[in-house]
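Reopening: GTP 3',8-cyclase still failing for me.
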Amino acid sequence: MLTDKFGRHINYLRLAVLDRCNLRCTYCMPENGLPWIRQNDLMTDEEMVRICSVFTSLGVDKIRITGGEPFVRKNCMGLMEKISHLDGLKDLSLTTNGILTAPYIPKLKEIGIQSVNLSLDTLDEERFFRITRRRSFDKVMKTLDRLLAHGIKVKINTVVMEHQNTEDIIPLVELTRELPVDVRFIEEMPFNGTHDAETVLKWDHPRIYSFIRSYFLDLVKTDAPKSSTSYHYKIPGFAGGIGIIAAFTRSFCGDCNRIRITPSGLLRTCLYSGDGINLKDEIRAGKTDEELKNTIINSIHHKPKDGWEAERQTLTPAQVHQSMATIGG
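Support: Ran it again with your exact input. Result attached.
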């Protein structure tokens, strides 16, 4: 099993298959998009499957497909099916904005996708347009309905933003009254693809929690896996659950079990890191699987203690505000 110098076991890989997205969310990228990765610099399907295979041989048993938006990538479904057959893989999951997802849901179920994280920052169609700069709210809700109809576990990811969607917090909590979904409220991070000089967090974990509890006094904290990024809560009698992810304040780093691969093949041992080894380049240079394993093991050994250390050591001020689409989900 992969272990870093702090004794943390790494068994979770987040694979970003593409940096492009069909939304332009205000907290992720500028309205006009980004300088996208050139086609030749993206990993091929074969390179992605090979990298995943090397990781599963090293004890990684959970892989999440992310983006950008995964379904913007041509033949993303075929790629996921290939990954689903890897020896040692126990959990293949997906993060999506839901716009292109609905037609693929039966196939997702067939290849064993048990959990989907669905990005949804509001239940109001006009606020959805203001946040995403696209009119696709109905498509996302159709995806939510179809995922639940096919028995696929859904986690709704909601980035909480001052003056944009705080009025949606309670309606989203109410969604869990009847639906077996987990709604996870996420602290806003500085990854918006601009060069803002300062990011001030108005809605942190304690404030989100206090706001929800002011409406639901019987809100109770529940147990969560040791490596979970989310604080878990439950309202008695509700079908679903609630989570709060301290993504900006980074209080979950001590038990981190995950690493990331960007669409261009960069191995990032921390969300807030600005450097890493490019495994795609290693493959194209003719490295064997054993050589790739040694590179990965060495990189994992130098995984930073937490996001603050990673940012301090590897990020320039401009990189602090890079887009989440370029980081890898």
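The chain has one domain: 2-327. If you still see a failure, please send the error message rather than a screenshot.
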